[in-house]
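Hi team,

As requested, here is the filled-out complex form for the flavin mononucleotide run. I kept the field names the same as last time so the parser does not choke. Let me know if anything looks off before we queue the next batch.

— J.
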Amino acid sequence: MLHDMNPVDVPMPYREATLNLYGLGTRKVLVSDHEVPYPDGRLIVSTTDTRGVITHCNSSFVEMSGYTREELIGAEHSILRHPDMPAAAFEELWNDLRADRIWRGYVKNLRKDGACYWVYATVIQNVRYGEVVGYSSVRRKPSRRKVEEAARRYEQLLAEEKARCPTPIR
Ligand SMILES: Cc1cc2nc3c(=O)[nH]c(=O)nc-3n(C[C@H](O)[C@H](O)[C@H](O)COP(=O)(O)O)c2cc1C
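And here is what came back:
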C-alpha cells in the first residue's frame, strides 16, 4: 500500500499526477521539474521479493530517493515510479525477469521531494537452491545522450498508451 505524496515534502513548484499502479490502485504524486544529477562513482542498489517489495537497499539508494530506510523497506518498488515512465518499460522488465532474462534500461525515478533522477539499471533474478526468491537492481550513472534518447522514446510510448487507453487500468 503506497500513500499519496504529501505537499509538505515537496519544496518546489509541482504538478499533480495520478498513477495507476499494478494491483495497488491509484497513487497521487507531486512532480517538480527539478532533476538531481546521479552522483559520480556510486552504485544505487536495491533488492526485492518476487512481488517487487523492497527488502534491502544501500545508502546511495536511500539518499537519492529522499525516503528514509524505514519508509523504503517493505514498500513496493513503485514508490519511485515517475508519471513520465510508460507502463511498457515495466511490462518489459517484469516479462524479462519472469522469462529468466536480465533487464537493462533507463529509468526516470521520482523522489520523495518531487524531483527526479535518471539511472541506467541492470535487473536480475536472485536464485537460491534453484528457486527465484527475488530480484536485484544495480544502477549506474547514465550518459546524458542516452537519457535524452530514452526520454524521447518514453514520451512517445506514453502518448501511445494514453491514446489507446485515456484512463489506463495500469
Ligand atoms: C529489482 C527491481 C527494481 C525496480 N526498480 C524500479 C525503480 O527504480 N523505479 C521504478 O519506478 N520501478 C522499479 N521497479 C519496477 C516496479 O516494481 C514497478 O513495476 C514499476 O514502478 C511500475 O509500477 P506498476 O508495476 O505498479 O505499474 C523495479 C522492480 C524490480 C523487481
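Two things worth flagging: The chain has a mean pLDDT of 95. Residues 144-164 form the longest helix (21 residues).

Thanks,
J.
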